[in-house]
Amino acid sequence: MAxxxxxxxxxxxxxxxxxxxxxxxxxxxxxxIDVITEAGPDKIMASTATASRLILKRxxxxxxxHNSKEMALVAHYDCAGNPGSKEMHxxxxxxxxxxxxxxxxxxHIMLIWADENWDIELxxxxxx
Length: 128
Fold this sequence. Notes:
Elements: E1 5-11, H1 14-28, E2 32-38, H2 41-47, H3 49-66, E3 70-76, H4 86-101, E4 108-114, E5 120-126
Parallel strand pairs: 1-2, 1-3, 3-4
Antiparallel strand pairs: 4-5
Helix pairs in contact: 2-3, 2-4
């Protein structure tokens, strides 16, 4: 049987990598996680058209070459690349979701929050 992939747009912060990847594998059943990293990806996806388009190119590689059908955008506690409150991060996730919906990727998209204990909370989902 072929291996399965899921995609994560995650912060470059090493503390959040393993908890998110483990959560994604459990949630999606994927064997592997394609990880796209940026400093403060929720802010980038919510507000920077050029950067989000660069991220989109990498999402398309994961979708088209690895047949990834599920993706998560991560925001997390104590983010150096996007410092601020949980509420601010949730607002960025909401704005990013609106942008990602316009891409019509045909993927299940999850918006997630990693708290101070690196526990993962599913904030919302976009279904294809």
